Inverse folding.
């Protein structure tokens, strides 16, 4: 049939003319008889002569093409094509021995760090680069000089306060001095937020180099200047006058030298955080004598605690609820009578970490609880929280318990928590992570009337931020991705796991990660792909947190299924724990482990700003045409009789026509119609039946319904089509059509389903699991979109300068007089 028709049509123009001719002939006459086989023939013709021409000339894009040789780098011996570390993988090691003291009065840190840098790279290094992130508080920093503003007519109070503060205060490292192993000064150069130290001679593969750096650093007031560290003082009327100190990115830290980028020297602009080398830390922190200090690692000189506190700490190890190590009463006593002099030195050690953070205050209440896990090295992790009384009772109830829950959930998804402690510290930083220690913000509120309450948002905010920041101890503090380059690799993966943990905390938790919640962002303007460098991201939170998290939720629940996803995700986490993955290592591992090609998924979700909107445009129902001409003609007549009668004939009703009036004008053609079976039709049917082979006779007996669905990809992002079909007997079924249906045409496809049942309606994505942006076009037949319209608010009063100046006139004169105030109640 297809070839016979093609014989009459050469090229596009004649094909169109042919089809139009056919349709014109049948419209109003025989349209309904164009069914089954003949419709299929028309469709086949259209695809041969029109489809491919449209695609190759214009809009065809192969959304399933492979990334290898395109956006993904060539595999190397250091990171291989399966997404795993290669057989020659290497990374540098940097060990630190630091002494630092906190001057509470000047809010300054003074320190000396002894660094041992081990070159495991195959390259000789002539110099070392270090990160001085705090330099972004210099007035002439790249970060300060490249701040941009919107064209808004308003400015926030905080913005003005910050401008005022930066006029009188300047951050960044002071008194820097670098000394080599022989005690002689090493020359160094500061380039904005980075420092290059010249080595006396090139450092060969396998060699170590030891040097010391002296530094001092003024801490910023976090609420004014912003940032991830700093201090907060409780100096409002009625407050105790004491401060909290958070130290982060607080010492010169070695930049990364990697196999894929050499020295990582993107400057610190504020958004892109950092990546560092792993190493062992021994840090001694000297603080006022009555301070409690929390830090990355484990406290070594526990005799700094009272015997009672040490006993509580031992009790907490096996407790199933948080135990106070420093009680609220002990903290209150320290607050009330601050030590005027004297210091204590807290010594911490941490192995195989990529950074070190700490916090110090006499205000700290400290609670702790042991978390059991399957681990020979760390069978019990000490979950601990440090907070001022202003954070109570939210923190007593939720902080340490949230740490414990995070470890339970993340251990399942990733790997066993590899450190002895996990800590949450309340302070002026809303949420920030370092190895084994996190800074978190939410607190209750005390009203002007003295009433203490907390909002639901603060409660969920605290649980959520503790999960998030403790989750970061896994990603990126252990799976050491480069945050300064790809924010999504830690924020997105971590937000995905945070979502899982929150939903396992409480099914009703308002967690970020539900597909339906990302739609508003996915259709918004001013978007960049997830695979954009951190400091150039637009809509930061949605781009780097919510969208990748949601993409992974969809990948897990809808595309791969939990078994394949969870296995692949664990594979990635374990392959790259304590190593340095790139996005391509993640993408490749997820594909290699699951056995599912996902290039189309990464392209759509991570490399484009397309959104999901699949429209079910049309559904056709067909049955196979009968071999019996009587049956065929009867069916055609039934369809014809359902067609509306011509308006002219309808309006002529009552006017006798010639054929009705004069019997002499009626003949064979008036006695029969085109649905009357002819002798030739019968002969043709009999001869066809004689000639039909067994296959054709078997096919002729097929009497199921053939449904064809036209899907249009409005949003551009290719996705599986999840289709719910409801039948006339009340039953339904949901079919999960793979994304690969879009491989030849990513814009519109026709898909077929055969059923003995009669279809009454169809719905795309019935459980709303794909972030499909436009609901109404998922339904066939379409439904009325029900809405509520609010009455517009009354218009504001127009300008009236006389009224606003409190004057009035009399009916007799335009002279104004001061309006008398309305008479008071009499
Ligand atoms: Zn984060």
């Amino acid at each position: 049939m297809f070839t016979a028709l093609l014989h009459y049509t050469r090229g596009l123009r004649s094909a169109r003319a042919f089809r139009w001719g056919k349709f014109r002939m049948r419209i109003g006459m025989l349209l309904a008889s164009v069914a089954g086989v003949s419709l299929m023939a028309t469709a086949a013709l259209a695809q041969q002569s029109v489809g491919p021409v449209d695609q190759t000339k214009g809009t065809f894009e192969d959304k399933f093409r492979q990334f290898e040789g395109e956006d993904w780098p060539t595999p190397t011996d250091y990171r291989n094509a399966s997404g795993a570390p290669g057989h020659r993988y290497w990374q540098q090691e940097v060990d630190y021995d630091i002494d630092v003291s906190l001057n509470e009065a000047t809010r300054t840190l003074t320190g000396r760090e002894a660094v041992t840098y081990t070159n495991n790279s195959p390259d000789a290094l002539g110099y070392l680069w270090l990160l001085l992130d705090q330099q972004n508080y210099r007035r002439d920093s790249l970060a300060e000089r490249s701040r941009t503003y919107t064209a808004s007519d308003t400015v926030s109070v905080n913005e003005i306060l910050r401008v005022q503060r930066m006029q009188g205060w300047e951050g960044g490292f002071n008194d820097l001095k670098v000394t080599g192993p022989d005690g002689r000064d090493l020359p160094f150069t500061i380039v904005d937020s980075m420092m290059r130290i010249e080595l006396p001679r090139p450092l060969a593969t396998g060699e170590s180099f030891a040097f010391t750096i002296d530094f001092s650093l003024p801490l910023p007031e976090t609420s004014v200047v912003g940032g991830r560290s700093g201090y907060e003082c409780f100096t409002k009327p009625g407050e105790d006058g004491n401060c909290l100190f958070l130290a982060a990115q607080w010492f010169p830290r070695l930049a990364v030298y990697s196999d894929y980028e050499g020295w990582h020297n993107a400057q610190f602009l504020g958004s892109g955080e950092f990546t560092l080398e792993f190493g062992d830390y021994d840090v001694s922190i000297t603080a006022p004598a009555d301070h409690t200090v929390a830090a990355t690692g484990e406290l070594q000189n526990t005799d700094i605690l009272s015997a009672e506190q040490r006993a509580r700490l031992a009790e907490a190890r096996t407790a199933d609820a948080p135990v106070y190590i420093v009680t609220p009463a002990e903290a209150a006593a320290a607050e009330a009578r601050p030590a005027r002099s004297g210091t204590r030195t807290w010594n911490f050690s941490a192995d195989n970490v990529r950074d070190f953070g700490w916090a110090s205050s006499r205000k700290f209440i400290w609670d702790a609880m042991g978390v059991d896990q399957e681990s020979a090295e760390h069978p019990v992790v000490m979950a601990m929280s440090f907070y001022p009384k202003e954070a109570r009772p939210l923190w007593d109830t939720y902080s340490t318990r949230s740490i414990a829950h995070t470890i339970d959930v993340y251990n399942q998804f990733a790997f066993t928590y590899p450190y002895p402690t996990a800590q949450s510290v309340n302070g002026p930083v809303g949420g920030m992570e370092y190895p084994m220690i996190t800074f978190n913000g939410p607190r209750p509120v005390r009203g002007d009337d003295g009433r203490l309450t907390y909002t639901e948002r603060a409660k969920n905010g605290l649980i959520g931020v503790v999960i998030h920041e403790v989750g970061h101890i896994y990603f990126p503090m252990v799976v050491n991705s480069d945050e300064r380059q790809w924010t999504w690799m830690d924020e997105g993966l971590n937000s995905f796991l945070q979502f899982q943990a929150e939903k396992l905390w409480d099914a009703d938790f308002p967690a970020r990660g539900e597909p339906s919640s990302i739609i508003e962002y996915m259709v918004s303007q001013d978007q960049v792909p997830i695979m954009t460098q951190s400091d150039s991201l637009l809509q930061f939170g949605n781009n780097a947190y919510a969208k990748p998290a949601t993409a992974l939720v969809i990948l897990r629940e809808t595309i791969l299924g939990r078994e394949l996803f969870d296995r692949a995700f664990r594979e990635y986490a374990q392959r790259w724990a304590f190593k340095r993955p790139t996005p391509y290592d993640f993408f490749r591992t997820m594909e290699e482990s699951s056995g599912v090609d996902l290039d189309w998924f990464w392209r759509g979700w991570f490399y484009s700003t397309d959104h999901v909107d699949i429209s079910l445009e049309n559904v056709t129902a067909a049955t196979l045409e009968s071999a019996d001409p009587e049956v065929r003609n009867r069916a055609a007549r039934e369809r014809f009789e359902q067609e509306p009668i011509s308006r002219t004939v309808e309006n002529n009703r009552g006017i006798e026509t010639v054929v009705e009036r004069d019997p002499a004008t009626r003949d064979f053609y008036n006695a029969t119609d085109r649905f009357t079976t002819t002798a030739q039709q019968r002969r043709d049917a009999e001869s066809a039946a004689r000639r039909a082979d067994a296959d054709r006779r078997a096919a002729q007996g097929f009497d199921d319904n053939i449904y064809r669905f036209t899907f249009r990809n409005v949003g551009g992002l290719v996705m599986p089509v999840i289709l719910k079909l409801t039948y006339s007997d009340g039953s339904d079924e949901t079919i999960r059509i793979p994304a690969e249906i879009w491989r030849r045409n990513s814009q519109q496809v026709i898909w077929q389903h055969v059923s003995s049942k009669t279809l009454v309606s169809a719905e795309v994505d019935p459980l709303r699991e794909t972030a499909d942006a436009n609901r109404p076009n998922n339904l066939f037949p379409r439904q009325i979109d029900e809405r509520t319209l609010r009455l517009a608010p009354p218009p504001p009063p127009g300008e009236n300068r006389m009224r606003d100046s409190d004057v009035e006139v009399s009916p007799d004169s335009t002279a104004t007089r001061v309006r008398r105030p309305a008479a008071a109640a009499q």
